Amino acid sequence: MAREGVMGTNLTTRDLLTLDAVAIRDRYQEGSLTCVDLVTCCLQQIEKHDRQGANLRAVISVAPHDVLFQRARQLDKERVAGHKRAKNTLHGIPILVKDAIATDAELGRAVQGRETRNLADRIQLHELGAIIIAKTNLNEFCGVKGFSKANGWSALGGQTQSAYVPIDPEDTDMGHTSPCGSSTGSAVGVSAGYAPIALGTESIGSIFSPATRAALYALKPTIGSVDMSGVWPVSKVFDAVGGMTKSVSDLAAITGCLITQGHLESSLNSKKFKDVLSKDFAGLKVGFLDPEVWVYPPEVVSPIESVATQIVSARKK
User: Fold this and answer.
1) What would the mean pLDDT of 165-180 be, rounded to a whole number?
2) Residue 229 falls in the annotated catalytic set
3) Distance, CA of 82 to CA of 66 (rounded, Å)
4) Run of H or E residues at 48
5) Rounded to two decimals, what is the model's pTM?
């Protein structure tokens, strides 16, 4: 799936799999890529691999093409004209949204929240120039419908597959072939080149677990720092909406949109997240759980003894 292949423009399949929003905007600025080109390639990738090809089933619905291309053309014109919002990192960037988050009715399938304004409006994705290209598959009812080992399965979307390894039907709930959940489609979609950025929701692991399996950067914001109105609820004391991306800079950009202004002012003194990125590993401390103490039972995931041994040996040195 990662082989080179021209997608009808000067973008290759490898580009779709690897370029983050910052690199895409560089190509916009140099004139080698347009938003219309990118949307075309993302739609081709979804068409090629979501219900055929790799049969990933990461997407539940794609926004109407006429809506997408009308917006892409508008954003291209804004960039050429030097519009103020064209300077935003997310301007002209396709985004996937988990189908537990309310979106505008014009995008087709909209999860209806209790609020008249959906989350995408409140975090100003539209105002910043982002393009919601599709809604993604998930554990049905965010995994609280019942006990099942089918992470990434819903009656509407079917079974989401990892872009890297097919599910072994004999594997356990969080086994090594599971794409994990419940924000499965968002993670798989980014890793498969459907879009550079996705939004997921998490109560206990639903963002970072599938993001880890998809080799992405992800963050669950502090509880209460994101307005959850219009998001399908699991728990008021655990729920949050967070981003999944291919780079730290993209994660900073999307997280900055999600966090309410009050929390930004109190935690970052009104700075943007990208302004506090050090771009340096100096002084970084990494913590890990002792695998001899903190370990999933074998009925959840089969242990890999060599990995546990390596971690324990490193800790003892």
Assistant:
1) 91
2) no
3) 24
4) helix 35-49
5) 0.91
